[in-house]
Design goal:
Elements lengths: L1 E5 L7 H12 L4 E6 L12 H13 L5 H18 L5 H13 L4 H20 L2 E2 L16 H12 L5 E4 L2 E3 L5 E3 L5 H11 L4 E6 L20 E3 H9 L7 H9 L4 E5 L8 E4 L13 E14 L9 H11 L13 E7 H4 L3 H12 L3 E14 L9 H11 L4 E6 L5 E7 L3 H12 L2
Parallel strand pairs: 1-2, 1-7, 2-4, 3-4, 7-9, 8-10
Antiparallel strand pairs: 5-6, 9-10, 11-12, 11-13, 13-15, 14-15
The structure holds aspartic acid (ASP).
């Protein structure tokens, strides 16, 4: 059994919804379908969810919102007509508008894009509609109730062989609607997949899975056919724009593989995210390369630092007091580098330096402000001699000076710090050395 989720671009209009129908019908195991609200049809277009949020803020500021609301109505009417179904969208939208005029909440408004999308798609593909408010449960403070939700999903879906479920929202005990953060339909999909013990959770978007490197840097990078959760975490932490960690978590704890697929290219197998720690790496050494710019490093030198008790605790305490998170901390015998993201440390650097000075009493300190970090990730790197030699040679040959090196004990991730200006050059060099 497969649980499948379609993102906003896959539900943007009737043409996309017709593709959903083909995809669902081409595999009878695709029994539970979670859908987003209609997204953008073209670059300058608006997502239905964004227009709903705009309606709400207009209402709050006493600005007329009729026209905005009409845009939403027109898009749904057009889809209903072009799909050749009649489900009385007019009545639904009139009802939503009336509730809205009477003061409906932001979450209620935002959730209606998913609700109407699911209603329409269910009618069009001939599946039952199951309202997410009945199966995704939050407590009264708006925290997800994981166990109750899993129970409710199992209980409800027992009676529905095939169903479409709106993503993004659920309900509190009093029945009021609560949404997940933006992009939260992924979470709904993962929750349904987890509760139903799906064999696979398919996440259909507008890209054919993940690439080994950022296509803005590497032209036509190789696709990643399988990747483990662990590798994915390392890559997404380093800035590869992939799924939200929270979004895949429920499927991950249930050990369900996730398949990222492209609605516009349904024959492409996409990327399979496997639950096993190291997937089916085969003879592949590097799975992916990702990185981001703009880190700040404070280098601390102090004689006998390595043997001083409590040094790191004090250091960590200072960062905690300043609400700055420590990204990495490579260390030597008498030296230690504190790596933080520039965004996070903005405006606090002087204070942190002063506190370091007073409490840590270093011999010297230096700041390096424009560092980029690049992670080369792959389970195949563990216990493979020569990987770092190849990596460093590639960077040296490209004329890149490495400012920092960090390799976790799992050996599946080597992070190098280079100057911001060498960022792209370094990624190209690593790609060439391991992938091309
Ligand atoms: N429609 C919601 C959003 O735009 C949720 C989703 O698409 O996952 O954020």
């Amino acid at each position: 059994m497969k649980v499948i989720k379609f993102g906003g671009s896959s539900a943007a209009d009737d043409i996309q919804i017709a593709k959903i129908k083909n995809i669902v019908e081409s595999d009878k195991n695709r029994r539970y379908v979670v859908v987003s609200a209609p997204g953008r049809r073209f670059e300058q277009d608006s997502k239905i969810t964004d227009i709903l949020y705009s309606c709400f803020s207009s209402r709050e500021q006493n600005i007329p919102y009729e026209q905005l609301f009409q845009v939403i109505c027109d898009r749904f009417y057009a889809m209903e007509m072009n799909l050749g179904i009649s489900i009385n969208m007019k009545d639904d939208l009139a009802d939503i508008k009336e509730k809205f005029q009477k003061g409906a909440s932001l979450d209620y408004m935002a959730s209606r894009g998913e609700f109407l999308s699911a209603k329409m798609i269910a009618a069009y593909i001939g599946y039952d509609l199951v309202d997410a408010a009945d199966i995704i449960k939050f407590d009264k403070k708006g925290r997800l109730l994981e166990e109750e939700t899993a129970e409710a999903i199992k209980d409800k879906l027992k009676n529905h062989e095939r169903a479409v479920i709106p993503g993004f929202y659920g309900s509190r005990p009093d029945g009021s609607i609560k949404t997940f953060p933006r992009g939260g339909s992924d979470i709904t999909g993962a929750l349904v997949a987890g509760a139903m013990q799906a064999d696979v959770y398919e996440n259909w978007t507008d890209v054919s899975g993940f690439m080994v490197a950022d296509p803005r840097i590497i032209k036509d990078p190789k696709p990643i056919s399988t990747i483990s959760y662990m590798e994915l975490r390392e890559l997404s932490y380093m800035g590869a724009s992939v799924l939200h960690e929270e979004a895949i978590y429920p499927a991950r704890v249930a050990n369900i593989p996730i398949n990222i697929r492209n609605t516009n290219e349904p024959d492409n197998p996409g990327t399979m995210i496997t639950a096993e720690p190291c997937g089916e790496a085969g003879d592949r050494i590097v799975t992916g390369i990702a990185g981001s710019r703009d880190f700040v490093v404070i280098g601390i030198n102090k004689n006998h630092l390595a043997t001083e008790r409590g040094f790191v605790r004090k250091l960590a305490g200072i960062l905690e007091d300043n609400d700055v998170s420590l990204e990495h901390m490579p260390s030597g015998i008498d030296t230690l580098s504190v790596v933080m993201s520039k965004k996070n440390v903005n405006g606090k650097l002087d204070d942190i330096m002063n506190e370091f000075e007073q409490q840590l009493k270093p011999d010297t300190m230096e700041i390096f402000e424009d560092m980029a970090l690049i992670a080369t990730v792959g389970c195949g790197m563990s216990f493979t001699p020569g990987v770092s030699a190849r990596l460093f040679t590639a960077l040296a040959d490209a004329g890149v000076n490495i400012r920092m090196i960090d390799q976790g004990s799992s050996e599946m991730n080597i992070i190098v710090g280079v100057s911001n200006k060498d960022f792209e050059k370094s990624i190209k060099a690593i790609y060439k050395a391991f992938i091309e």
